[in-house]
């Protein structure tokens, strides 16, 4: 009888002998180099004296995102305080929550914002489509993200690409089809992971025309852009002012007025840049807005008293369901409080970040060049020392007085400083106009299928683990607004 260990030993020797010594040296060298490559960056925070969770080779702390980045940040914030360091793959990321440091980090560069008042008619049109759609599904249990996803996509695609789409009623529209394909982009796609773990692979992928987005989608948007440009050159264009039209105008003009009103030469955008901007617009705007609307609807359904107060404010501002106006909607105070409190509880962006361009001192800490500095919004928005009982939905946290009493850098759903969200005002108008139209027509109610409390999932953008299910019941009577009890401070 031969023992199993002896057989295994013989097999191992045969295997070793099977490869030449040079091959073995190459394999071992590759292995050692890979091991060094995988763990090399993990000394950064140790050298800086910054605490943080232990990384594992190659992945850093990525695998600890299993329950979502927001919850992971919240845990680290409780454990390490106002500054800690983590590694996303090989990238060191310094996390800061101290409002003064946050201010220094975010308020440095310059960036423009996207004006939006002129988009109000587009939004108004789609709020009618939304209400009409829900009328037909009155009292049915609905996954609200689907409904708001279509509403957001219609508004943003229409604003970005000059095109009228109706995804609520026409799923086969080529635009909807391509935008949906664009949205299916996943952080776990093999190409994204390859670029993430081995950034050096990027030029090679580019050489072989391999992109993160499907080439059919890129081709579709490019042909659309060319069609619009041709129409524009022939002087054919609608009076609608949309994002794409604005960029094409810039491209054609090649001059721009500076802040003093002087005309200066302008390095016009290339077609690729215009196309990328329009796509970013859709990617950055659709999910964020749809998720936020879903969270507001959820909060209102779970808190019928707050919903009634909001309806009362809206009924008073727009008696007998009168036409919405941009100014009218944007001045509703309680609506603003409800939206703000929802964005505090559910900041869809979870984190914002900046890269440190040169070595600098932050709150007594030496931060080397190249480090990514992150502001964990979810963790900050749920810090009980700033927001008592943070898991409670309390619009009163956003009265004028309560806001004045707080450091503004403790609440940043749209980021801050010159590089904050360029779609912020557009998004708020989009969300608020949608809500006003809904509140005029419906009561939003929970159903036995509504998950309470809501469990957060682990997607890159803050999204619920399971779909939010609610129903929309037609309102029978309007309620009277009592301003005195609607805006109390905490
Ligand atoms: C509730 C909705 C939204 C939320 C919560 C949100 C949040 C954010 C946040 C936190 C950032 C990073 C800001 C920073 O780094 O300081 C951002 C960036 C950005 N957002 Fe939004 N966003 C929303 C809707 C939109 C919409 C509707 C658009 C476009 C129509 C948009 C376009 C962008 C763009 C292009 C950027 C990148 C700006 C840059 O890199 O300079 N967002 N957004």
From TrEMBL:
It is found in: Endoplasmic reticulum membrane. Pfam families: p450. Heme binds at residue 421. The chain crosses the membrane at residues 12-40, 182-201. SUPFAM superfamilies: Cytochrome P450. Keywords: Endoplasmic reticulum, Heme, Iron, Membrane, Metal-binding, Monooxygenase, Oxidoreductase, Transmembrane, Transmembrane helix. It comes from the Eukaryota. The keyword Heme applies. The keyword Membrane applies. GO terms for cellular component: endoplasmic reticulum membrane. InterPro entries: Cyt_P450, Cyt_P450_CS, Cyt_P450_E_grp-I, Cyt_P450_sf, Cytochrome_P450_3A. One of its GO terms (molecular function) is heme binding. Its cofactor is heme. Cytochromes P450 are a group of heme-thiolate monooxygenases. They oxidize a variety of structurally unrelated compounds, including steroids, fatty acids, and xenobiotics. Belongs to the cytochrome P450 family. PANTHER family: CYTOCHROME P450 FAMILY 3 (PTHR24302), FATTY-ACID PEROXYGENASE (PTHR24302:SF15). This is Cytochrome P450. It comes from Eptatretus burgeri.
């Amino acid at each position: 009888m031969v023992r199993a260990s002896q057989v295994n030993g013989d097999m191992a020797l045969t295997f070793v002998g099977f490869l030449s010594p040079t091959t073995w040296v190459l394999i071992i060298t590759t292995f050692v180099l890979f091991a060094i490559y995988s763990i090399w960056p993990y000394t950064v925070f140790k050298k800086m004296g910054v605490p943080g969770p232990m990384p594992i080779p190659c992945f850093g702390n990525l695998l600890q995102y299993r329950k979502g980045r927001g919850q992971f940040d919240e845990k680290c914030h409780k454990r390490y305080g106002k500054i800690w360091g983590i590694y996303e793959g090989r990238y060191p990321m310094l996390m800061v929550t101290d409002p003064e440091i946050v201010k220094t980090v975010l308020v440095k560069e310059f960036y423009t914002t996207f004006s939006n008042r002129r988009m109000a008619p587009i939004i108004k049109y789609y709020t009618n489509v939304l209400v009409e759609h829900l009328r037909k599904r009155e009292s049915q249990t609905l996954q609200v993200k689907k409904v708001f996803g279509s509403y957001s996509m219609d508004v943003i695609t229409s604003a970005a690409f000059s095109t009228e789409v109706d995804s609520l009623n026409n799923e086969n529209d080529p635009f909807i089809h391509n935008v949906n394909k664009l949205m299916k982009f996943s952080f776990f796609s093999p190409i994204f992971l390859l670029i993430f773990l081995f950034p050096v692979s990027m030029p090679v992928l580019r050489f072989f025309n391999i992109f993160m987005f499907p080439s059919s989608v890129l081709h579709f948007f490019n042909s659309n852009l060319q069609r619009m440009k041709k129409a524009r050159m022939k002087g054919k264009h609608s009076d609608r002012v949309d994002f794409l039209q604005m960029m094409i105008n810039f491209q054609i003009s090649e001059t721009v007025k500076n802040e003093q009103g002087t005309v200066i030469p302008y390095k016009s955008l290339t077609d690729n840049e215009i196309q990328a901007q329009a796509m970013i617009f859709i990617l950055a705007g659709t999910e964020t807005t749809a998720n936020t609307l879903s969270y507001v609807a959820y909060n209102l359904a779970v808190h019928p008293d707050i919903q009634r107060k909001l309806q009362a404010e809206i009924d008073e501002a727009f008696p007998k369901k009168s036409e919405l106006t941009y100014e009218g909607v944007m001045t509703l105070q309680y609506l603003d409080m409800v939206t703000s409190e929802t964005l505090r509880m559910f900041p869809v962006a979870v984190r914002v970040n900046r890269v440190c361009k040169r070595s600098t001192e932050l709150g007594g800490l030496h931060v080397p060049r190249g480090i990514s500095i992150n502001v964990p919004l979810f963790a900050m928005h749920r810090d009980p020392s700033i927001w008592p009982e943070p898991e409670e939905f309390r619009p009163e946290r956003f009265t004028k007085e309560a806001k004045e009493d707080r450091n503004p850098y403790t609440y940043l759903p749209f980021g801050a400083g010159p590089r904050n969200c360029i779609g912020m005002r557009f998004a708020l108008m989009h969300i608020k106009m949608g809500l006003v139209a809904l509140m005029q027509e419906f009561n939003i109610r929970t159903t036995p299928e509504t998950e309470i409390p809501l469990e957060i999932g682990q997607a890159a953008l803050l999204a619920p683990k399971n779909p939010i299910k609610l129903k929309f019941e037609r309102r029978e009577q309007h309620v009277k607004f009592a301003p005195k009890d609607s805006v109390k401070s905490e």
